[in-house]
């Protein structure tokens, strides 16, 4: 049986039988992988704790027909321990890994892996609002997969902007001639916030007031749901908790130099 080794982040786990677990991984080189980890639910397992969501591991597997088999796992970064202690960060991280699993089906790549790692690390640092990290991750990962929103020229006819309407279905801003009925109007500050999230320009984002940033977040949510085919379960939970007041979007004004790693920062280095 062929074996391989890769650096990977654990996206999801499922119970299998009495002591086994199916682990969904996003590998740096191999993309999305589903593998069986034998006996990891036993207390005597040597690497059970290493195969939990949000853990970054150096993993060795046997390649199988439908499911691979994990034979070795070494911890590279234990983000899970920090994230589970804060409900807001944990909820946000759950959306990120669910989105990563969905996007990886369409376009696995080392850059997608880098974005996930950068987003999880930024969440553990706690120096940015989780919603900013999530919005930036969603836009940048969708862009890598070929679904970048048009923010300057018309998404339909290519007419140069600026434009005042944003169509989720058409993929970005649209001119007056191409605007379908019911399309939302967006102001320049909201579009600037979306651009900052897409590029990871935190200094520009922090200079924008809360109202246009909130509108930009709504655009990102609607846009990601459109191009991920259906609403993420973890995002439904996140939005429900926010409506109930369980999550508080406390904004910070920290600059880029104070943030450490942000989504995709390893890619820029």
UniProtKB/TrEMBL annotation:
Q: What are the UniProt keywords, alphabetically?
A: DNA damage, DNA recombination, DNA repair
The family database entries (InterPro entries) matched by this protein are listed as:
ARFGAP/RecO, DNA_rep/recomb_RecO_N, NA-bd_OB-fold, RecO, RecO_C
Which residue numbers delimit the DNA replication/recombination mediator RecO N-terminal domain? 1-77
Task: Classify the source by domain of life.
Answer: Bacteria
User: A biological process (GO) annotation for this entry?
Assistant: DNA recombination
Q: Name one Pfam family in it.
A: RecO_C
Where is region (Disordered) located?
249-269
Q: What cellular component GO annotations does this protein have?
A: bacterial nucleoid
Family to which the UniProt record says this protein belongs:
Belongs to the RecO family.
This chain's function reads: Involved in DNA repair and RecF pathway recombination.
Q: Which HAMAP family match?
A: RecO (MF_00201)
- Give the matching PANTHER family: DNA REPAIR PROTEIN RECO (PTHR33991:SF1)
- Its name, as the record gives it, is DNA repair protein RecO
Species source reads Pseudoclavibacter helvolus
